[in-house]
Write a structure and sequence with these properties.
- The structure holds 2 protein chains of 2 kinds.
- Chain A is an alpha/beta fold.
- Chain A contains 10 helices and 10 strands.
- In chain A, strands 6-7-8-3-9-10 form a 6-stranded mixed β-sheet, sandwiched between helices. Chain A has a 4-stranded antiparallel β-sheet with strand order 2-1-4-5, covered by helices on one side.
- The longest helix of chain A has 16 residues.
- The radius of gyration of chain A is 19 Å and the shape is globular.
- Chain B has a single domain, classed as ABC transporter involved in vitamin B12 uptake, BtuC (Orthogonal Bundle), CATH 1.10.3470.
- Chain B contains 14 helices and 4 strands.
- In chain B, the strands form 2 sheets. Chain B has a two-stranded antiparallel sheet with strand order 1-4. Chain B has a two-stranded antiparallel sheet with strand order 2-3.
- Classes of the chains: A alpha/beta, B mainly alpha.
- At the A-B interface, helix 2, helix 3, helix 4 and helix 6 of A face helix 8 and helix 9 of B.
Chain lengths: ~260, ~350
């Protein structure tokens, strides 16, 4: 872990009309770590990802990626630097087969510069690259699954397709918006090693999660958001021991459990 | 015996099957025999030969001129279908494209003395660039909002020329050179339509075509894929407006004149009607639609002012009975065969 943080978020604020969705949120993410962001529903987690990746313009604050200010950049430029994201509500190209979904990110200048795909090369060449990426992310290579229309794929594969789109860009950071949600326990069990492998490949991950147990298996440092404000940050055990966090976050869960 | 026969009929049902030639994925065909190749080539050959034979089988000069006008509308309809169904931009700018192309060609020809062989390509490229540049600020708009703004351009252009009395004012630019002979005029245009049609069909299935479709279906994911939405939208608008300007330049040389009526809204509306009856998203359909609508409109001239009533009735009939469009229906039927099977 280097000393210089790879992504630095400083005092990011965003208001939608009268609702303060984010208020002076700051945190650092270091090279190669898995950084967790947790918090109750509506605490501003997805808004934070949208602000970092440029999908929403932040009102104030600064985001620095490897020393470069990316806080006012267009989303495609941020993605072209290697700061990629997944969507909580999956956004595949439903009318295309799964593997063809990857042709679009592979068409981007970043992916073409990174090589791997010669671009417009021989027939079948780029399809192989697509299928290679899909296999890496857990699609069975010799099955029909990579060739099925995205609209016919189950949630588990669509979540993987989201990650595959990021991988096609050879990302440095992936911001995962709830990759575990909506998956069965066995699907999550196969997703966890995948996340660990991405980390071993040198990709920095920022994960928004509601599935705390699974998140804490991979993430060594988490941050808690509540009503757009940062409550605490640290190793999972410390954070969950915090009284304020318990009240804001786990409090509601205990109520649910007792009901 | 009669009863038994009746039961036989009752116990059968019609079965529809897709032909096996369309295999697992869209776009990959298993071509292994001449029958299968013929099956794929036949519709394309019929279309190409049919279009190329038109000037030969139609004797009257009047109807040959109608064919040229059909081709002008076909190019616009092709551009409209491409923008609407593959990029998600509903453009009513057909008249704007025609007018821009027409005026550029006319100016180049009358003021600089360039022959049609040069004015048409220059008008295509320059006109496409001008239209794209002017439409660029509207690209973030979606759906009907983009449509309304693009409709504004031809109206504004006509008013500007009228009010400022520039570019020949209401008289237009007269004395534009015509083509050396009608065969060059006709076959040039027919070949342009065929090349544009097959070129666009190829383009939408290439990688950049997938990006265009991505922009239409899911622009957020395209942004997340490190691709600029506006860049690809402007490329698409350039392609469509170049087709329109090409048609406009050709029109100016056919009529030997360029004027305000080239900004008439017919050029914006008829391509849409043609796309509706021909079948959107097929690219061939809109051309077919033009080949039906424009001649009908000519035939109905005999009815004078009642023309528009009959025209509307025909349009409504198409929409009620074949709302999916002729080409969509025909394609489905071609890839299916029906047979009676015993239940």
């Amino acid at each position: 872990m280097s000393f210089e943080p790879v992504l630095q978020v400083k005092d990011v604020s965003k208001a939608f009309g009268g609702v303060q969705a984010l208020k002076d949120v700051s945190f650092d993410v270091h090279e190669g770590e898995i950084f967790g962001i947790i918090g109750p529903n509506g605490s501003g987690k997805t808004t934070l990802i949208n602000c970092i990746t440029g999908f929403i313009k932040m009102d104030s604050g600064k985001v620095t990626f490897r020393g470069r200010d990316i806080s006012r950049q267009a989303p495609h430029k941020i993605a072209a630097m290697g700061v990629t994201r997944t969507f909580q509500i999956m956004r595949p190209y439903y009318t295309l087969p799964a593997y063809k979904n990857l042709i679009i990110p592979l068409f981007s200048p970043r992916a073409r510069k990174a090589g791997g795909w010669r671009g417009g090369g021989k027939l079948g060449d780029r399809d192989t690259v697509c299928i290679d990426i899909l296999e890496e992310i857990g699609f069975e290579r010799d099955s029909f699954v990579p060739y099925k229309l995205a609209s016919t794929l189950p949630t588990g594969y669509l979540k993987r397709l989201e990650l595959a789109r990021c991988l096609a860009l050879r990302p440095e950071i992936i911001l995962c918006d709830e990759v575990f949600s909506g998956l069965s326990m066995s699907e999550i069990a196969s997703m966890v090693p995948l996340i660990e492998r991405l980390q071993m490949d040198g990709i920095t991950l920022i994960m928004i999660e509601h599935r705390l147990r699974e998140l804490f298996r991979v993430s060594k440092r988490v941050m808690v958001l509540n009503f757009g404000e940062k409550l605490s940050e640290g190793i999972p055990e410390e954070v969950m021991a915090d009284e304020e966090v318990k009240r804001a976050y786990l409090g509601s869960e205990e109520v649910e459990e007792s009901v | 015996m009669q009863n038994a026969g009746l039961r036989m009929i009752e116990d059968r049902r019609k079965e529809r099957l897709d032909r096996g030639i369309k295999v697992t994925t869209e776009g990959i065909y298993a071509i292994s025999s001449w029958q299968e190749m013929g099956y794929l080539l036949l519709p394309r050959l019929v279309l190409i030969c049919g279009i190329l034979a038109l000037p030969l089988v139609i004797p009257s000069l009047y109807w040959q001129r109608v064919i040229s006008i059909v081709c002008i509308y076909s190019l616009l309809a092709l551009g409209f279908d491409f923008l609407a169904h593959f990029v998600g931009l509903v453009s009513l700018g057909g008249a704007f494209f025609i007018g821009t192309g027409g005026y550029i060609a006319a100016i180049l020809n009358t003021s600089f003395g360039l022959p049609p062989i040069l004015t048409i390509p220059i008008a295509t490229i320059a006109g496409g660039a001008i239209c794209t540049l002017l439409l660029y600020p509207c690209l973030p708009l979606r759906g009907v909002y983009f449509a309304i703004v693009t409709l504004m351009y031809p109206l504004v252009m006509a008013r500007i020329i009228e009010a400022l009395d520039v570019l020949g004012g209401t008289d237009g630019i007269i004395g534009v050179a015509s083509f050396p002979n009608r065969w060059i005029e006709q076959y040039g245009l027919l070949l342009i339509v065929i090349v544009s049609l097959f070129g666009l069909r190829r383009l939408v299935n290439e990688d950049i075509g997938l990006v265009f479709r991505g922009v239409k279906d899911n622009d957020q994911a395209v942004k997340a894929s490190a691709l600029s939405i506006n860049f690809y939208k402007s490329i698409a608008v350039f392609i469509a407006s170049s087709l329109g300007c090409l048609a406009g330049a050709y029109l100016a040389h056919i009529y030997m004149w360029s004027g305000i009526s080239q900004f008439a809204l017919d050029f914006s509306i008829i391509p849409i009607a043609a796309t509706v009856i021909g079948g959107g998203g097929t690219l061939v359909g809109p051309i077919l639609g033009c080949f039906i609508l424009v001649p009908i409109s000519e035939l109905l001239r005999a009815f004078g002012t009642l023309r528009i009533v009959f025209y509307s009735l025909i349009l409504v009939a198409f929409i009620v009975f074949r709302s999916e469009g002729i080409m969509v229906y025909a394609e489905r039927k071609y890839h299916q065969f029906e047979r009676w099977v015993k239940v």
